[in-house]
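=== RUN LOG ===
request id: a7f3
mode: sequence -> structure
chains: 1
length: 106
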Amino acid sequence: RVFQMLRSGTPTRSRDALIIVNGTTTDRHILLPRARGLGWVVAMDTAWTSPSEGGVQSLEDAETLPASLQTLAADSTISLEPLSMMVLLSHPADDVLDYESASTVD
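=== RESULT ===
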């Protein structure tokens, strides 16, 4: 099975986070949600042979999201390797959202 969890950053004025887990023994194609913006950056991917291959390397990286991170377009389809997990964060350009005018549920 494939499990996805989308955490909205809107209430806390932070980035959205998407966690995708492929618990199967075959590659799976995943359609990325639009969430609230232009796309996603890959913060972590267990398919990498080493964490130094990309993603967030330190707490400072998590705050500023370096430009070297791999980007993925919203509404695009990605392939997730068997028995792997990927953590995506909303693209930094998406942070221009006007939170004051965003609708909220009370």
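=== NOTES ===
Residues 94-106 have pLDDT under 50 and may be disordered.
The longest strand covers residues 39-45.
=== END ===
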